[in-house]
C-alpha cells in the first residue's frame, strides 16, 4: 500500500477543532488550521512550486500538517506521495507542530565528536520523539543544526535560539526537564 494512504485525511489537533454552533453543522467540526492553509493556497496559481506552497503554509500556521498535503499536491499538480517526498527532503519544512520550545543540537563534526551525537540520542530517548518532531504534548521540538562557528565551545545546543556551549548529558537532561515542565520524568 502506498505510504501516503495511511495518513488520515482529517486529523487536526484537538485544540484546533471546535464545533460549529448550529445543529446542522454540529457533526462537522471546523479545522482552523486547514482553513488558514486554504486561504494561503488561493493566493497561488495551479502548478505552483510545491516548496513555495508548503513554505507559505508553514509561515501561516507554523508547520505543514499531513492532512493538508493532498490539497498542496493538487495545487502543485503532483501526487500526494510526490508532494510529501519533496517536503520531507526540505529540512526547514516541518510536518509536525513547532512546539513551545525549540531544542536544536549541533551535529557539525566538532560538536558531534565532542558529545553532540550522544546528546541527540539522549534527546530522542528521554523525550520519546525523533529529530524534526515535537513531543506529544507539543512542549519541545528537537532538530539538528550545522556548525555555527562556535566549535571551541563544543558540543553546542540551542534552546529557543540561545546557544549553550560545553553541554553535557546531565545538564542537558536538567534543561529538558525544566522546559517540559513538572509532569515530565526522565
Ligand atoms: S561543529 Fe558545532 S559549532 Fe562548530
Structural class: alpha+beta
Oligomeric state of the chains present here: single chain
The total domain count is 2
Unreliable residue stretches:
1-23
List the ligand species: FE2/S2 (inorganic) cluster
Strand content: 5-15%
- Percent in helix: 25-40%
Provide an overview of this structure.
This protein is of the alpha+beta class and 186 residues long. It has helices at residues 32-41, 50-61, 69-76, 80-88, 109-127, 169-180; strands at 17-18, 30-31, 101-106, 133-134, 140-145, 157-159, 162-164. It has two domains: 3-88, no CATH class; 101-180, Glutaredoxin. It is built from six helices and seven strands. The strands form two sheets. A five-stranded mixed β-sheet has the order 4-5-3-6-7. It has a two-stranded antiparallel ribbon with strand order 1-2. The chain starts with 16 loop residues before the first strand and ends in a 6-residue tail after the last helix. FE2/S2 (inorganic) cluster (FES) binds at residues 106, 108-111, 147-148, 150-151, 154, 156. The site of FE2/S2 (inorganic) cluster has 11 residues, from helix 5.
Task: List key phrases describing it.
single chain, 186 residues, alpha+beta, Glutaredoxin, 2 domains, five-stranded mixed β-sheet, 7 strands, elongated, disordered N terminus, binds FE2/S2 (inorganic) cluster
